Hints:
Distance between the termini: 70 Å
Number of strands: 0
Shape: rod-shaped
Helix content: over 70%
Number of helices: 2
Strand content: under 5%
Number of domains: 1
Amino acid sequence: MSDFLAMGGYAEYVWSTFGLTAVVLVINMVGARRRLRNSLREAGLRAARQRRQAS
Length: 55
């Protein structure tokens, strides 16, 4: 197991790359959810505004 974790002497590079990739993926997911939430809120506000103008 320690041989696997050492990655043939490249463990520092390999694990830091895995860590950075995980951080970027999490940031991407959080940003996408935030943009979706904002878009849905804006669409709801636009729809409510149009309903008020139509009546």
